Amino acid sequence: MEAKQGVYLGASAGELHAGKIADKAAGVLSQKALFRRRGTIELAGGSLVLSGWDEGALVLRPGDVTSLRREFTDLYGRFLGGLTDSGKPLVLGTTTPAGELYLLIDRKEFMESTRNKEWAEAIEDWRHGTASGPPPA
After folding, report:
1. In the beta sheet, which residues pair with residue 4?
2. What is the spatial distance between Cα 16 and Cα 76, in angstroms, rounded to a whole number?
3. Sequence-distant (≥ 6) Cβ neighbours of residue 65 within 8 angstroms
4. Theoretical Cys-Cys bridge with 51: which of 21, 35, 39, 91, CB 3.0 to 4.6 Å?
5. Alpha carbon 54 to chain centroid distance?
């Protein structure tokens, strides 16, 4: 599998749930008000790494990711995420203490678009060991 790298904005479901009304109002103008975690995301070999999570990096192995979906939810709806399909958050269920993660990967603020669809496909392949890499020599 070829390594994949990007930049993310993120939050746990608990953090989004605990957000105050003022945070949600500010989130209409900038997602950074809701998604306070940010850094690089890298998918390489046996791990998915989110830098800048708590004291360091959050490192996930395929078995740590219990679910993956790309959809608007009660915690992050269409009004906040934009009306387009590309604004849907990437929601990862995990076995880690962070719990369910909401990610916006390579988000373009003005266009309200992300590369979440592309990342969802890559992470799903990685989880199930179906990622195709270069052909063997």
Report:
1. 43
2. 8
3. 48, 92, 93, 94, 123, 127
4. 39
5. 15
